[in-house]
Amino acid sequence: MESEDALEKIPPHLVAGDLSGMRCDGQRCSALDGQIGVATRCTIYEVRPQVCRECQPNDEECLTARWAYGLGRSD
Length: 75
Fold this sequence. Notes:
Order of helices and strands: HEEEEHH
Largest sheet: 2 strands, antiparallel
Strand order of the largest sheet: 1-2
Distance between the termini: 30 Å
Shape: globular
Number of strands: 4
Number of helices: 3
Low-confidence stretches: none
Strand content: 15-25%
Structural class: alpha+beta
């Protein structure tokens, strides 16, 4: 769980209105830049929330997200 200090480093325009997490455009996090399946990057990588830090390439969450976008495995 993040500290209040850590959470305050996330730009307010990227936080959900109800403060439940990151603001999303549909299923896509507003902090994600680029084209999914081509090249993406987190625009707040250094201050990203713990839930984002826990998602690792090819773990269950990653594979689920890749499947949702029709991308298959990333290895």
